[in-house]
Amino acid sequence: MKLKGIKHIFFDLDHTLWDFDKNSSLTFQKIFGLHNVDINHEHFVKAYEPINLNYWKLYREEKINKENLRYQRLKDTFDVLNVFVEDALIDKLSSDYVVHLSSFTHLFEGTFELLDYLKPNYELHIITNGFDEAQHKKMNNSKIAPYFKTMTNAEIAGVKKPDPIIFNYALELAKASPGESIMIGDNYEADILGAKALGLEVILFNYHNSVVEANIKQVKLLQELRQYL
Asked: Where are the domains of the chain?
């Protein structure tokens, strides 16, 4: 069923359009090679992903800062795998990870086709908790930046999703009202509940098959958004 009255579409970036897991895995493969880190890359990534998600939750909740997130997620993963890495090297890996991450440009299947479909009829925007310097590079390098009128990130807004301040900041920047706007993202707490609380329409990009409330619209493939927009 097509949603009526929508003029502005706000997307999350990481894990929604930009394939964070794939690009992150390739980044670790690269920086481990650059620094001769002797570790099974696939084992590392498998251990890292849930640790990273937990640290991002702590970051959203203002319990850690950016520097702690970047260092501790690596340190904890090495510890879980019983691999000793000196702090100086962890710091270097943390820094190089951010430098190289945006050089990888994999998007979720159907991203360009969806954006081409939406662009003529809607104004498109990004709301992301990702770091300012990295998010612009990701969008430019993956060639999706021209599709979007505005990009709001947590560092610019001063707070992170699901805080209503970042959504209000994005709405004001886009010159949009909640009633004519929709938020599409993969994170139930940050994207969906955060936007819904302000009166935006919401759709969960549920590619990871999370169990959510039955009344929440969800899609598992980006192409499925066409049934609503």
From this structure: 8-19+107-227, 20-101
pTM: 0.93
Transcribe 134-202 into DSSP letters.
HHHHHHHHTT-GGG-SEEEEHHHHSS-TTSHHHHHHHHHHHT--GGGEEEEES-IIIIIIHHHTTT-EE
Whose tokens are 């900041």? That residue is 169
CA dist., res. 144 & res. 211, Å (int): 30
- Name the superfamily (CATH) of residues 8-19+107-227: HAD superfamily/HAD-like (3.40.50.1000)
Consecutive H or E run containing 93: helix 87-101
Question: Mean pLDDT of residues grouped by 10 in the chain (229 residues)?
Answer: 95 97 95 94 93 92 91 96 94 94 97 98 96 91 98 94 97 98 96 97 94 90 97
